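Chapter review. Work through the record for L,D-transpeptidase before attempting the end-of-chapter questions.
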Amino acid sequence: MPDSMPPGVILSVDIASQSLTLTNQGGEIVARYPVSTGLNGPGQADGSGCTPLGDHYVRARIGAGEPVNTVFRGRRPTGEVYSPGLAEAYPERDWILTRILWLCGCEWGQNRGPGVDTFRRYIYIHGTPDSEPMGVARSHGCIRMRNADIVELFDRVPAGTHVRIS
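Structure tokens for L,D-transpeptidase:
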């Protein structure tokens, strides 16, 4: 975990409005995107299906250069490209597509450490099928985005970027 957040862009996820805001170093809003957070609401506990609150940072960026709709399992491309037919064949899958920004908590006992660790819970900002609604909490705890939006965001966000979820 970085001792202090690097200067630069900041991501703010607002669970109430189901939105993600990108601000620059000067505090100006650069972009705002609709998202879908945890169906079970905000929360920290392992296995809760909730989206964790507080200060985080982007620990890993996964999927650079992969085609839009690339399917990931265990943070690795499967070789599949999402399609309605693939979704019909595997209706139980939680689709993680296109790009992954893997988050790590910064607050010991809140979103980092035993029982509440965002990184060990595999909480990401990631792409999802474009047929999935945005602005509605429906994920298993991650922050889902439209594929075009996650590609755009991924290209603007370096590892170490501060992420505030409230």
